[in-house]
Amino acid sequence: MAEKQLKDAAEPDFQELNEEKRSGSSKDMDFLLDIPLEISVELGRTRMLIKDLLQLGQGSVVELEKLAGEPMEILVNNKLVARGEVVVVNEKFGVRLTDIISPTERIRQLK
Predict the structure, then answer these.
(1) CA 13 to CA 15: how far, in whole Å?
(2) Ordered structural domains, the chain, with CATH
(3) First to last CA, the chain
(4) Could you report the per-residue pLDDT of 49-90, keeping only the tens digit for each?
(5) What is the torsion angle, in degrees rounded to the nearest 10, for the CA atoms of residue 92, residue 93, residue 98 and residue 100?
(6) What mean pLDDT is reported for the chain?
(7) What is the pTM of this model?
């Protein structure tokens, strides 16, 4: 008898998800979809002494650590989410995504 009670107690009781509950969670997600994010594309980086920075003028060239042809880094709120290549669309620059960072790696960046 005690064995039967343990069997009955061990089985989880799952409730059926009805349409009303589904639409509620959809509405909850809708407000997240309207949150603005800052997206930037990083061409490259370098380090420079203040004296060298002060000598920069029009026409100066700043050498970056990234090699020509390397993928650009796409950042969302300063966190790396993808890499891509520069394209021109209707006389404006754009970025074609070539590699998207895995969700696991994105979560690791949040720490």
Answers:
(1) 7
(2) 36-111 (2.30.330.10)
(3) 50
(4) 999 999 999 999 999 998 888 999 999 988 899 999 999 999
(5) -100
(6) 82
(7) 0.62
Sign, CA torsion 99/103/105/109:
positive
Q: Which DSSP category does 82 fall into?
A: E
Neighbouring-strand partners of residue 76: 39, 79
CB 103 within 8 A of CB 86: no
Going 45 to 94 to 108 to 28, the CA torsion angle's sign is positive
Question: Is the four-CA dihedral 55, 61, 66, 71 of positive or negative sign?
Answer: positive
Phi, psi values for residue 76, rounded to 5°: -115, 120
d(CA 98, CA 70): 11
Q: What is the DSSP string of 33-45?
A: HT----EEEE---
